[in-house]
Automatic annotation (TrEMBL):
GO terms for molecular function: nucleotide binding; proline dehydrogenase activity. It comes from the Bacteria. This is proline dehydrogenase. SUPFAM superfamilies: FAD-linked oxidoreductase. Its EC number is 1.5.5.2. FAD binds at Q163, K187, G188, A189, K201, S226, H227. It catalyses: L-proline + a quinone = (S)-1-pyrroline-5-carboxylate + a quinol + H(+). It holds the Pfam family Pro_dh. Its cofactor is FAD. InterPro entries: FAD-linked_oxidoreductase-like (IPR029041), PRODH_bac_arc (IPR008219), Proline_DH_dom (IPR002872), Proline_oxidase (IPR015659). Substrate binds at K98, R288, R289.
Length: 307
């Protein structure tokens, strides 16, 4: 019940100001956000690599309102890539981007987002790594998939995300699986209306398994984005049945969530990538993490009260 309320609050400026200023916020945010700057995230990347984990780095931010902010987002990723070059980790450290941070919702936003993200994908390729386009709310997806297709003409390793809760996703999965794309499948983290998305957890989980099967049986590279133990073991079984080797798919989880499971899957020989978010504009990302698990909200409320 609380999830949709928190998701609505994630788009409110008033709530943003309140939550950002609340005592105790920083301590709770630090569980999910690996640092505020490139300097702070680099040691986290090195630590993950030392443990046999891979990362996908997200400079947090979304729903920007000016072209200058879109250029700043591009520059923040270019700065990150400069630092990754020194680490020389190849695809062990890739990046995830939200096109809304690159200007997608502004006037002429589709072209602006493409023009801004292309240099990032180019620079990533130059250091031997890749970029994955995150999935945001359903109104942005046609543009995201078109940008993905355009980028793949020159950079076929560019990945994208599909969300099991959307009715459209099985068709998207078929298209992407047939053309050999890297695809991350997730349940979906936005507040979506019943006209376009399943609302019940059981329906979303069933859709997730249907989409997983399509991806595992297809030509692409499936990236299983979930912390759900049931879906993880189903993914392992579907990969086995599809005859996929351990390096022909990967698991992905979020920084700060089920860390022991990251290590367990890596120790079993799986590719395990940790989605590692950092930066100062953490509000939207943080609120979605609260919405996913009400216990997080209780912890957050307690940390405010005990200060
Ligand atoms: P579920 O929510 O059922 O959680 C299973 C278990 O995991 C819980 O019981 C709990 O133990 C743990 N858990 C899950 N979330 C937690 C949290 N926030 N705090 C503490 N414990 C938690 N969404 C999207 O719309 N677009 C995107 O691009 C992405 N990208 C993305 C990348 C990666 C690597 C992951 C793992 C997830 C995303 N998501 C996303 C988010 C995704 O849509 C979904 O909201 C979360 O992964 C939660 O769903 P689970 O599959 O983990 O299952």
């Amino acid at each position: 019940m609380l999830g949709p309320v928190i998701l609505a609050a994630s788009r409110s400026d008033r709530m943003r100001r309140f939550v950002s200023a609340a005592p105790g916020t920083k301590q709770v945010v630090a569980r999910f956000i690996a640092g505020e700057s490139v300097d702070q995230v680099v040691p986290v990347v090195q630590d993950s690599a030392a443990k046999g984990l891979e990362v996908t780095l997200d400079v947090v931010g979304e729903d920007i309102t000016t072209r200058e902010q879109a250029y700043a987002a591009r520059d923040a990723y270019l700065e990150l890539i400069g630092r990754l070059k020194e680490l020389d980790l190849g695809t062990q450290a890739e990046m995830s981007v939200k096109l809304s941070m690159f200007g997608q919702a502004l006037d002429g936003g589709h072209e602006l987002a493409l023009a801004n993200v292309r240099p990032v994908v180019e620079a990533a390729a130059a250091i031997g790594t890749t970029v994955t386009l995150d999935a945001e709310d359903h109104t942005t997806l046609d543009s995201m998939f078109a940008i993905h297709e355009e980028l793949r003409k020159d950079f076929p390793g560019t990945g994208c995300v599909i969300q099991a809760y959307l009715f459209r996703t099985e068709a998207d999965a078929r298209r992407l699986a047939a053309n050999g794309s890297r695809v991350r499948i997730v349940k979906g983290a936005y507040k979506e209306p019943a006209e376009v998305a399943y609302q019940q957890k059981s329906e979303i989980d069933k859709a997730y398994v249907r989409v997983l099967r399509i991806l595992m049986e297809g030509e692409g590279y499936p990236m299983i984005g979930s912390h759900d133990p049931r879906l993880i073991s189903i993914a392992q079984e579907l990969a086995r049945r599809a005859g996929r080797k351990l390096d022909e798919y990967e698991f992905q989880m979020l920084y700060g969530i089920r860390g022991e499971e990251h290590l367990r899957l890596a120790a079993e020989g799986h590719r395990m990538r940790v989605y590692t978010a950092y930066g100062t504009d953490w509000y939207g990302y943080f609120m979605r993490r609260l919405a996913e698990k009400p216990a997080n909200l209780r912890f957050f409320a307690r940390s405010m009260l005990t200060r």
